[in-house]
Specification:
- By secondary structure, this protein is an all-alpha fold.
- 77% of the residues lie in helices and 0% in strands.
- The longest helix is centred in the first third of the chain and has 24 residues.
Length: 273
Amino acid sequence: MELNQNQAGTLAALQELIEVVAKLRSPDGGCPWDLAQTPETLTPYVIEEAYEVVDAIKNGTQTEVAEELGDLLLQVVLQAQIASESGQFSLQEVAQGIAQKLIRRHPHVFGDVSVQSVDAVRQNWEQIKAAEKGESSPDSQKLSTKLSRYGRTLPPLTAAMKISQKAAAVGFEWENIDGVWAKFYEELEEFQQAVAEETPERQQAELGDLLFAVIQLARWHNLDPSEGLQGTNQRFIQRLQKMEAVVNRPLSDYSLDELETLWQQAKAQLAKE
């Protein structure tokens, strides 16, 4: 296939990145930090860079989105480079694998399947995916088996919402919102008791139960708990910024009462903006 100028430039840029990463990992003149990394030590960076891409898409400029996508791409190339050094797989295999997967899962584009809606595309995708993963056995069709995948692969808040939604879809659900609120207050009481009387392990378990109950409330009200918490984080930071803008010494030098006054002033100021 003949490449146009843009495609050739893209491939050249990818090749340059591959060569740079290979040099960083070279025992002969490479970077000590890069050489010390393993797939496991790089895992936090994969997650961090993915979140930074999302933040740039939501709040950044096109330049920032491109930069963060580059940081995420680096993690893909670096993982493949480390794997190739021990003969596990190469970046070529990674790229070929995802290309073939896309072809298989889009028979309406690359084959002769006809679809009439986005829902039909999604249904075909899930059926093909299940067949690829051998999820046609009785055990693989169990709800617990499907939910365990969410628990392993998704961030905890997202996994909890997915698990809750899938369980509710098969009837494991309260009859009305009153039952959900009752469960929340029950878990709150159990958490309070655990904090007062029980071991750290039990406290941690009860905290998880309480958070799961909060997520049920969010689901019933069609709210996204991750978005809600992200908003709270941002508002907390914004209020601290307002506080620090009007003080002349570190916040740690102020009393709790003084900090509360500054906090309320910052909160009121932001509400007006």
